[in-house]
Amino acid sequence: MNAQRIGEPQLVEEAAAAVAGHTRWVDDFPSTGVRFADLTPVFADGPSFSAIIEALSSVAPDAELVAGIDARGFLLGGGIARTLGVGVLAVRKAGKLPPPVQTCEYRLEYGTAAIEIPGDWLALRGRKVLVVDDVLATGGTLSATVELLERVGAEVVGIAVVTEIEALGGRARLQKYPLTSLVRI
């Protein structure tokens, strides 16, 4: 594992060490041949969680809003937003918000999924948004989130994740944006 050097280098290194030291690896989950990186122990450790929040907050200090993706992105988004002194937007899985909503459907390896944000009350036009999630794999969810935010007029100023699985190539789908991953595996 190695840390991507974006943001304040010392903060990124501390966070990467915390992730490496507390991640629980689970073989053959959720299916045979997959090695799952469980970040639950990382987030449950106060100093580790704080290190992650500080490092990810340093990558987009001009953000006016943080968009956290369902569900672990909510944890990160809330902490980053508090650190930056801005609001947080929960980007939800389809069917979790009452209408009206703005929806973006995207393809998965095995079907489709959709994400949503409130459709009538949230003024995003022209706002600078940092998008956060726990893992970048194929980039489908992050790409759909960016598309949805831009569709409603937001300006995505960066994308930040804790862990990036390089072999799945998600970074290529997000080349247009500054992307920070604390740990790349």
UniProtKB/TrEMBL annotation:
<protein>
    <recommendedName>
        <fullName>Adenine phosphoribosyltransferase</fullName>
        <ecNumber>2.4.2.7</ecNumber>
    </recommendedName>
</protein>
<keyword id="KW-0660">Purine salvage</keyword>
<comment type="similarity">
    <text>Belongs to the purine/pyrimidine phosphoribosyltransferase family.</text>
</comment>
<feature type="domain" description="Phosphoribosyltransferase">
    <location>
        <begin position="65"/>
        <end position="163"/>
    </location>
</feature>
<comment type="pathway">
    <text>Purine metabolism; AMP biosynthesis via salvage pathway; AMP from adenine: step 1/1.</text>
</comment>
<keyword id="KW-0808">Transferase</keyword>
<dbReference type="InterPro" id="IPR005764">
    <property type="entry name" value="Ade_phspho_trans"/>
</dbReference>
<dbReference type="GO" id="GO:0044209">
    <property type="term" value="P:AMP salvage"/>
</dbReference>
<dbReference type="Pfam" id="PF00156">
    <property type="entry name" value="Pribosyltran"/>
</dbReference>
<comment type="function">
    <text>Catalyzes a salvage reaction resulting in the formation of AMP, that is energically less costly than de novo synthesis.</text>
</comment>
<keyword id="KW-0328">Glycosyltransferase</keyword>
<comment type="subunit">
    <text>Homodimer.</text>
</comment>
<dbReference type="InterPro" id="IPR029057">
    <property type="entry name" value="PRTase-like"/>
</dbReference>
<dbReference type="GO" id="GO:0003999">
    <property type="term" value="F:adenine phosphoribosyltransferase activity"/>
</dbReference>
<keyword id="KW-0963">Cytoplasm</keyword>
<dbReference type="InterPro" id="IPR050054">
    <property type="entry name" value="UPRTase/APRTase"/>
</dbReference>
<dbReference type="GO" id="GO:0006166">
    <property type="term" value="P:purine ribonucleoside salvage"/>
</dbReference>
<dbReference type="GO" id="GO:0002055">
    <property type="term" value="F:adenine binding"/>
</dbReference>
<dbReference type="GO" id="GO:0016208">
    <property type="term" value="F:AMP binding"/>
</dbReference>
<dbReference type="GO" id="GO:0006168">
    <property type="term" value="P:adenine salvage"/>
</dbReference>
<dbReference type="GO" id="GO:0005737">
    <property type="term" value="C:cytoplasm"/>
</dbReference>
<dbReference type="InterPro" id="IPR000836">
    <property type="entry name" value="PRTase_dom"/>
</dbReference>
